[in-house]
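Support reply, case 0932

Customer input (verbatim):
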Amino acid sequence: MQVGIQTSAYHHYLTRSWQHLLPHPHRARRLDMVSSVLSRFDIVGLQEVDGGSFRSSNVNQVEYLATRGGFPHHYQQLNRNLGRFAQHSNGLLSRLAPTLVEEHRLPGTLPGRGAIHARYGDGPDALHLFVAHLALSHRARMRQFDYLSEIIQPLRHVVVMGDLNCTPEQLHSHSRFCASLPLHPVRPLLSYPSWQPRRALDHILLSDSLEARDVRVLDHLFSDHLPIAVDVALPSSCQAVLEALHRKQIR
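Our regenerated output:
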């Protein structure tokens, strides 16, 4: 999301850097454009959203996008708390209420990276979804992959999505993480930089119990990364758990 800053050239990192600190009159309009795209989906993971501070005109962007996009449930993970100046966060938007949501503070030399773990349903056939934003440095990412591997390894139906700040080749080089989450051989999705994509840094990863359909990059210049999307086919056992959860919630 880059807190609602539209970046369409490398020089914008410099000329628009002030928007990381100060409000911008067009930010609300850009959020409305984002919400219209997000409304097509059932679950959305967000990185680099502001939780309500001076730079976002005191708007909690996770809550705003949930409301405008028609998502009944949302969750904000505050990763860097700079008080009234910035509330740097991850976010989750969902049409189905998770059974449980947990925050994870990812290890690293510099604090401020995190992951959201949402569980849908109970038992071995529950769906587990992680929204993560990993570090820029290779060393820190390796520690963060180790951390996530410990959590993911005993789970069965898993989705990991977010800005992992690494290419598919770098991702596959971490054997422990790939062993905990067998990956589908999905073609790399070039998402960075958004105005001329050359690198696949953003990923939606699925356990081998799930089937990826219609994997795609969305052509929308909302930040310096392009959003990616996938339709997921669930096994009948997992689908039954989610349907039971839905029936329970609408009673």
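We compared this against your earlier run and they match. Two observations from our side: The radius of gyration is 18 Å. The longest helix spans residues 138-152. Please reopen the case if you see a mismatch on your end.
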